[in-house]
Each structure stands twice: as structure tokens, then as C-alpha cells.
């Protein structure tokens, strides 16, 4: 101005402040406190009973009662959930039976003449065994059957045998047990210090088992191709679905106890599925050249089994009496088992921890036999004669392995008491067929028609007691079959349905109500993180003394700024959250 006056000094500028945050609508907004969060949930949730916590907030008794009811319902719900999951993790199954009408192939039929015969290479050995048997039975029962034995076993002397009968294993009376007399024989180890008794209350069974033990010791020394055949006289006639079947339609084999066996060729039958599925056979049961101590029965052993399965006649099958016509009705059942985790079974693409010794389809019996034979070779250094041999092994005979009978007995007892790992190594097949049989018999041929029937069949004489005929008819009882399927009690959809039923029972809500609970948990977690972040920032930004220096433009004109001028006002970093927490709270609202 002209009078030289100066402009009044400008007031000092206030400290810079951060821009005020906007409080508009956010994408995600949180409540200010947990109380507000819970109140909003209880007011707007679709879960029954939660609104009572808000409506009765002025009545503490009702609030506490409804709180206890909700807590109790929640506890019972999760207790039932625990029981449900416990049952689910047991993986129980139920069996479902259904009937199908598709055409089925005819099964395999194995027939044996039950006439174990004397191999030509072992006739001299068997004569020595027969003499020993005659002596043993005479010493026990004072019975001598030398005439019949000589008639059946007459033979021109052959070369010196390479087998020496072990007369220490003799048929004898053993100590009575519970006041009952017992007959049997003893099997000892290599030193003779440990012996096991094969004792039987029936002398007939004891004599047969004793003779059978010596018999397989003789057969074990014969070459693999020693098996003799009774020729083609066993099957007189055969017709399948009104077509003739001949010898080439049968597979032949030999069983040490059941004699010559014939298996109806399932491959030939599969090419002719037919409609009636019926096979009719006329068979000849003979006991010429018989071993009376090895087999005490006369007749025909029959077993019906699936195609490409090994017949185990010792465990299955039935006998047909000579001089009868037997009609057998078949009904097939298929079992379909579930694999892991519902159970253990063997499917067509799986493998087992046992080298199978049979070149057929997998069955549990074939696996158990193979497993036992492998353990027999490992433990006793030889294989049991009734089962196939692993590569490089030999059959047991006390000529080469004096104590094999003792070893076999202990190993077989462990198998029967499930002490061997074979049971766990050999699961059941996942798909298995079984046949339910019903049979009826009648006399055939009748007394009035026997003469001309035998003449037409070419039987020379009907007065020979060692030769008799039998007729067998086998057909499907029904052209449909049943399947038995394992079905899980709780599949995943059924488990979810059961959980939903329990949730609806106790809270009257649905899946969307569960989503509301999840939303509540997420909001609570986010609110907890935000409050923790504010608390941490507040603990770091406590008020502290600081020297405050104004910029030159804001210094007072009256004099210099005092160096000791201080301010107790908190700095900008203490008034607001750090940038990270500020951005986090801004994003959450």
C-alpha cells in the first residue's frame, strides 16, 4: 500500500490430511460387529428357530431356552451324522435278485466211472501192497479175502520194482479216545521222534485211507504219461439236443480215486446252443480190474460245472447208482460281487499273488489248490500227487522223501484252520456261475425190458455182477436264469439324501440353508481378520513426541523456529491405517 503498510500475515497452514474415504455401496460389505452379524443372520436365515433368538431378545429365559434347543439339535444332528458315516465307511452291501430270460450255453458235464484201475507199470508194486493189506486186515479182523484179491490182481511177474513198501506205516489199532476204539496209522518225521496219528472210528475208512496213502506213493514214481484208459466203452450213447455226440466231443482224463473221467466238450455245445438244452447219455459202470480197498462204491461220479473250469470231484459232484435212469434238472445262478472298497474279489482283468497251476479260468478252488501245492513244495520239498506240479518240482513218495506224510499232515491242518495265507491270497471271483440241481431216479432197464435193451446196446450178458448200465438225462429246468448282484447300502447319492433328511428333520432347511451357514462363517472369518489388522496397526501407531519442522513458507515471521518446539499430536501414520489394511477394509466396506 502507499502508506507502507504490510499485508497481515497468513495463518499457518494446517497439517496435510489424507482424503476422506468414500462410503458408497461396495461389492462386499461387512457388519460393524459380531453382534450385528449374528443378528442379521438369525433374522434373515431360512433355518428354523434362529429368528427366535432375535425376537425373544428382551426375554433372557426364552433366548437361553431357544439357544439350548438349537445347540442340542445341532449336537444330535452331528451325532447322527457320525453314525451315518460310520456305517457308510463299513461299505455294507445287500443282495439283489433278478431274473433274466437270455439264452444260456450248456455247462460242462464231467463223468467218472469210479473204477480206479491198476496201471500196467505198477501192477507188481500193487500186488505187494495188496499182500501187505491182506496181512494187516487179517491181523485186525481175522478176515481173509485172498481169493478175490488174487482173481483181481493176477499178473505175470514183471521186472524188479524200483519201489520198496514202507512196512513201518501199517494199519493198526490206536489208543481209544473217549472210550471209542480207533483204527489208523502213524506218520513220523525223519528222525521218528514226532509222529501224528491218522485215526478213524470206522475201520472201513481207516483201511481205505491207509491203502490210499501207499497207493499214491507208488503212482508218484511212475512217469507222467503212465495213465491207462478203459477205452471208449464207458459211454455207450450220447445225444445233445437231438444230435449224436461222439468220442471226439469228450475230453478224457484220469483221476487216482475216481478212475477214468470224461468231460462233455462245452465248445462243441456252444456252437449249437439249441432250444431245449438237453443231453442224454447211456453209461457203463464196471468194476473189472478194480481196487477194492481204494474204492468201496460202484457207480458213476457226475459233476456239472461252468465251461473252462477245472472239476474238483473231491469237493463237489454226486454219484449215480447203476441200473437206474437219473434225470437232473439244472437251474443256473450268477453272482456278481462288488470289488474294493466293498469287498475283495477277482475280476477278469486282475491278478492274484499265486501262480495258478491249472490252464483254465480262475476259480477260488483252483487258486487254493495252487497255493497249497506251492507251499507244499517249499515246505516239504515235493508236491502232492493229486495236484499239478510247479515247474522243476517232483511228486512226493517216501522212497525219495521219507517224512513227507508227516509234513503234509501238519500243512493240511493249517490250511483247514485258516493258518495259511492262501485264503487271503485267493479271493472269490467277481462274476461266478453256480448250478442248482434237482434229481429224480427210476429203475432202468426194468425187469421186463432188460433182455432186449441189453441186446440192442450190445451188452453180452446181464448176469455179470461187475458190469451194469446207467442212463443220465441232464437239461435246463427253465430257460431263464437268476442273477444275484451285490448293491451298496449307501452310495454317494444315497448318503447325501440321508444327510439331507437328517438336516431337514432337525432344522427344517435345505441345501441353500447350508450355503447361508457357510456365508456366515466366511463373513465371521473376514471380520476377524479386519479387526485383527486394525488392532495390529493401532499397536504400532502409539502417540510419541516428535520434532515438527514447518516448511519455510509456514515459518513465523517474528523469529526463527525454536528447535525445541514440539507437538504431541499424533502423526498421519497414527491417525489412519496403513495402506495395506486401508485397502483391505475399503474392499470389504
Mind explaining what this structure looks like?
- The chain has 589 residues and is of the alpha+beta class.
- 33% of the residues lie in helices and 21% in strands.
- It is built from 15 helices and 20 strands.
- It has helices at 34-44, 52-55, 60-88, 123-141, 146-153, 203-219, 266-270, 364-380, 404-416, 422-425, 450-457, 492-507, 511-540, 572-575, 579-588; strands at 93-100, 108-112, 172-177, 180-188, 195-200, 235-240, 243-244, 250-255, 259-264, 278-286, 300-305, 318-320, 324-336, 345-346, 428-429, 431-443, 467-476, 481-488, 546-547, 566-567.
- Strands 1, 6, 7, 10, 13, 16, 17 and 18 form an 8-stranded mixed sheet that branches.
- A hairpin with a 6-residue loop joins β4 (180-188) and β5.
- α1 (34-44) packs antiparallel against α13 (511-540) and α8 packs antiparallel against α9.
- The radius of gyration is 46 Å and the shape is elongated.
- The two termini are 55 Å apart.
Secondary structure topology:
Elements: H1 34-44, H2 52-55, H3 60-88, E1 93-100, E2 108-112, H4 123-141, H5 146-153, E3 172-177, E4 180-188, E5 195-200, H6 203-219, E6 235-240, E7 243-244, E8 250-255, E9 259-264, H7 266-270, E10 278-286, E11 300-305, E12 318-320, E13 324-336, E14 345-346, H8 364-380, H9 404-416, H10 422-425, E15 428-429, E16 431-443, H11 450-457, E17 467-476, E18 481-488, H12 492-507, H13 511-540, E19 546-547, E20 566-567, H14 572-575, H15 579-588
Parallel strand pairs: 13-17, 13-18, 14-15
Antiparallel strand pairs: 1-18, 2-9, 2-11, 3-4, 4-5, 6-7, 6-10, 8-9, 10-17, 11-12, 13-16, 19-20
Helix pairs in contact: 1-13, 3-12, 4-6, 8-9, 13-15
GO cellular component, one term: plasma membrane
GO molecular function: ligand-gated sodium channel activity
Keywords: Cell membrane, Ion channel, Ion transport, Membrane, Sodium, Sodium channel, Sodium transport, Transmembrane, Transmembrane helix, Transport
Amino acid at each position: 500500500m502507499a502508506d507502507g503498510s504490510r499485508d497481515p500475515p497468513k495463518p499457518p497452514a494446517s497439517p496435510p490430511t489424507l482424503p476422506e474415504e468414500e462410503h458408497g455401496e461396495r461389492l462386499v460389505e461387512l457388519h460393524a460387529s459380531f453382534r450385528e452379524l449374528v443378528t442379521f443372520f438369525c433374522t434373515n436365515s431360512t433355518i428354523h428357530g434362529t429368528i427366535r433368538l432375535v425376537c425373544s431378545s428382551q426375554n433372557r429365559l426364552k433366548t437361553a431356552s431357544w439357544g439350548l434347543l438349537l445347540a442340542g439339535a445341532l449336537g444330535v444332528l452331528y451325532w447322527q451324522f457320525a453314525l451315518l458315516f460310520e456305517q457308510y465307511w463299513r461299505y455294507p452291501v445287500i443282495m439283489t435278485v433278478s431274473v433274466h430270460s437270455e439264452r444260456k450255453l450248456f455247462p460242462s458235464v464231467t463223468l467218472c466211472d469210479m473204477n480206479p484201475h491198476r496201471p500196467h507199470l505198477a501192477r507188481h508194486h500193487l500186488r505187494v501192497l495188496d499182500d501187505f493189506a491182506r496181512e494187516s486186515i487179517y491181523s485186525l479182523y481175522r478176515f481173509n479175502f485172498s481169493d478175490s484179491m488174487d482173481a483181481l490182481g493176477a499178473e505175470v511177474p514183471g521186472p524188479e520194482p524200483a519201489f520198496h513198501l514202507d512196512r513201518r506205516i501199517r494199519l493198526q489199532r490206536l489208543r481209544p479216545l473217549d472210550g471209542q476204539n480207533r483204527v489208523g496209522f502213524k506218520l513220523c518225521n525223519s528222525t521218528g521222534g514226532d509222529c501224528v496219528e491218522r485215526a478213524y472210528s470206522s475201520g472201513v475208512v481207516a483201511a481205505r485211507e491207509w491203502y490210499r496213502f501207499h497207493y499214491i506213493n507208488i503212482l508218484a514214481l511212475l512217469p507222467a504219461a503212465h495213465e491207462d484208459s478203459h477205452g471208449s466203452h464207458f459211454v455207450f450213447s450220447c445225444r445233445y439236443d437231438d444230435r449224436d455226440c461222439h468220442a471226439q466231443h469228450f475230453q478224457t482224463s484220469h483221476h487216482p480215486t475216481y478212475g477214468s473221467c470224461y468231460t462233455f466238450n462245452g465248445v462243441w455245445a456252444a456252437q449249437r446252443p439249441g432250444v431245449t438244452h438237453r443231453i442224454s447219455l447211456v453209461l457203463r459202470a464196471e468194476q473189472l480190474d478194480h481196487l477194492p480197498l481204494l474204492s468201496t462204491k460202484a457207480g458213476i461220479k457226475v459233476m456239472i460245472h461252468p465251461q473252462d473250469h477245472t472239476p474238483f470231484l473231491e469237493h463237489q459232484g454226486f454219484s449215480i447208482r447203476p441200473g437206474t435212469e437219473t434225470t437232473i434238472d439244472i437251474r443256473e445262478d450268477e453272482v456278481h460281487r462288488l470289488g474294493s472298497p466293498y469287498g475283495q474279489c477277482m475280476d477278469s482283468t486282475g491278478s492274484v499273488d499265486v501262480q495258478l497251476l491249472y490252464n483254465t479260468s480262475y476259480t477260488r478252488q483252483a487258486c487254493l489248490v495252487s497255493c497249497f501245492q506251492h507251499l507244499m513244495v517249499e515246505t516239504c520239498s515235493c508236491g502232492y500227487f493229486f495236484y499239478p506240479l510247479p515247474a522243476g518240482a517232483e511228486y512226493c513218495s517216501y522212497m525219495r522223501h521219507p517224512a513227507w506224510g508227516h509234513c503234509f499232515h501238519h500243512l493240511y491242518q493249517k490250511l483247514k484252520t485258516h493258518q495259511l495265507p492262501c485264503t487271503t491270497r485267493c479271493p472269490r471271483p467277481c462274476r461266478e456261475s453256480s448250478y442248482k440241481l434237482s434229481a429224480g431216479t427210476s429203475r432202468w432197464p426194468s425187469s421186463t425190458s432188460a433182455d432186449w435193451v441189453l441186446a440192442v446196446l450190445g451188452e453180452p450178458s446181464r448176469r455179470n455182477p461187475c458190469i451194469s448200465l446207467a442212463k443220465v438225462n441232464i437239461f435246463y429246468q427253465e430257460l431263464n436264469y437268476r442273477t444275484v448282484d451285490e448293491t451298496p447300502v449307501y452310495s454317494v447319492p444315497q448318503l447325501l439324501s440321508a444327510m439331507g433328511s437328517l438336516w431337514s428333520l432337525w432344522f427344517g432347511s435345505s441345501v441353500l440353508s447350508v450355503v447361508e451357514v457357510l456365508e456366515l462363517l466366511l463373513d465371521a472369518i473376514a471380520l476377524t481378520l479386519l479387526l485383527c489388522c486394525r488392532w495390529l496397526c493401532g499397536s504400532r501407531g502409539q502417540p510419541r513426541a516428535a520434532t515438527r519442522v514447518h516448511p519455510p513458507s509456514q515459518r513465523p515471521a517474528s523469529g526463527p523456529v525454536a528447535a525445541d518446539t514440539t507437538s504431541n499430536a499424533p502423526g498421519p501414520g497414527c491417525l489412519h491405517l496403513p495402506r495395506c489394511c486401508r485397502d483391505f477394509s475399503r474392499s470389504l466396506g
